[in-house]
């Protein structure tokens, strides 16, 4: 392509296009691949914000946009080249959900498709997007999306799981809407290393260490750049706080984060442990993620070490810890606003694969704590099989364990089992974290 045509391709839209490709081809996560692309294309400020919303919003609303595109194209979407489909989805989001003038949304998308695919594909994209532009999103939803799943861009099985977890239909619409709302950036001050007062933003509702950032790049915040504070959802902060707050009988010197990667909760736990003269071991199965934990804990007090180890067969002595956090691998359906691609990547079969792993991890953790010690089990999924199902199975399989109430002062957060906690994005503004506290007799 001639240089003058390359110059016409908007860098922010190019970044969004590259994010969609990475998610589709490499199974990348939007929140992980996007920062590197922003740096590569030297985008900041409004351009970075535009690229972020364009990429994340397009992935969130992909299901609805595909239904609209199906109505505008005279062939199955499976017959449309995937690179062209990525461009069409980006165009839909600009036309239907962003304050981009119609002519700009169409022309810039056509330029992008021309640059990345071909002249013929650009003409096809132009015709399709002109058809899309004839109605607004509400009108299109009325026409092509009569069901809640398509209208809110969630797979039907995910809607069913969330409805069952809520246990009520009157909040389902609010929950699905919250999943599609861009999350605000939340920072955490790590106790003993930073204070909340030195962080810019409004204090979080429930965590005494968090603030909601009004805007800008969190990496430019001095305490974040120095590792004394970090970016962390308030729900994740509350998991670490609850793990540290649970009373234990006797010694309280050795703590373990059994599934510590990438290290955000471990960093807060280590800071809380250091305040009490305790120490934390960070354990993570995958070596590269264990490296991320080491980086997150760099400079922290209260760190006994970081180990790359399988949590189901841990290399620690039985009864050698006083408290253990098990933030288990899960479907992640409680963090769809933050990880929009998860709704399209996960399948119902994943639940059946993950639940036995979660049960084994909790069982290992219970073996690792001494009598009187505690295990906090947490997931960023509200799916009942991963929450109450795991807790019930563990309790039925052991006579040396008792379930105790989680000590968090958060209203309207009753979990599916008495004493457990279930946070919700539409109620609490957090990811849908589940917490259960188990004590070894």
Number of β-strand runs = 12
Shape: globular
Radius of gyration: 23 Å
* Proportion of residues in extended strands: 5-15%
Name given to the CATH architecture of the largest domain: 3-Layer(aba) Sandwich
Total domain count = 2
Largest sheet data:
8 strands, mixed
Average pLDDT value? Answer: 95
Helix proportion range: 40-55%
Low-confidence stretches: none
Describe what you observe in this structure.
Strands 5, 6, 7, 8, 9, 10, 11 and 12 form an 8-stranded mixed beta sheet that branches. A 4-stranded antiparallel beta sheet has the order 2-3-1-4. It is α/β, with parallel strands linked by helices and 441 residues long. It has helices spanning 3-8, 11-26, 30-40, 45-60, 62-72, 82-97, 102-116, 119-132, 137-144, 148-151, 156-166, 172-179, 222-225, 234-245, 264-275, 287-297, 342-345, 348-368, 388-397, 425-428, and strands at residues 186-189, 202-203, 210-212, 229-231, 254-257, 279-284, 303-308, 321-327, 369-379, 401-404, 421-422, 434-440. It contains 20 helices and 12 strands. It folds into 2 domains: 3-145, N-utilizing Substance Protein B Homolog, Chain A, CATH 1.10.940; 233-440, Vaccinia Virus protein VP39 (Rossmann fold). Helix 15 links the parallel strand 5 and strand 6. The longest helix has 21 residues, at 348-368. Helix 2 packs parallel to helix 4 and helix 5 (62-72) crosses helix 6.
